[in-house]
Amino acid sequence: MAAINQAHYDRIEHPQKCAPGDFWGQVRRTVNGKPIPQEQIDLIFFMIRQALCFQPDDVLLDLCCGNGRLGSEFFDEIRTYLGVDMSPVLIEIARKNFERFSTHKFLLQNAQEYCQRESHPELFTKLLCFGSFAYFSETQAFEVLSLLHRRFTSLKRLFISSIPDKDNADAFFNGREALPTDDHTSAIGRWYTRDDFAKLAGSCGWKVTLSEMPSVFYQAHYRFNAILGRR
Domains in the chain, please, with CATH? Predict the structure, then answer.
């Protein structure tokens, strides 16, 4: 499959090949096609809770939310939730399985368009973008981070997780076919050095804290996390 079609395949075609209840498989929480163990899923939940420090009155924005299974884990810890994704297949799954009417909803929309058009951006207090930031083009990445800072004025903490670490790309691709590290449409997306990501987010107005993944996490050797806050 050509790299340029990979992002489309992952979000449109691949989920339809999975069983209806295989929520992690639908969003490729897998290794070599096999589901990752529950212990690894629990580590994902741990990282998110540790980074976002949920409070009962939080309003969470989940950008590129996929099928909603990840965000649904935190529904009882926050006041309201909105998950946004551009995949009609994944949003349909999310609405069918996880939506809670007026309080915890899902929206079919491109992330950049959503950030431009949200009519009440001031309501959101926390943001999650897990494993998807690498699929923004360079222009989209800058625009999304800038819009979030300028329009979503009540956002206190943003957790952008699972960013491919360009400094570790050679080690990751050792023994396998290498993918371009600057192509956001490839299977892993666009890779960033930590310094490059910090400069990008900083240029959009954010205070940036980079953090390691737990050493036992299956992607810890080639990905890193970022917590953004207001200066």
Answer: 38-230 (3.40.50.150)
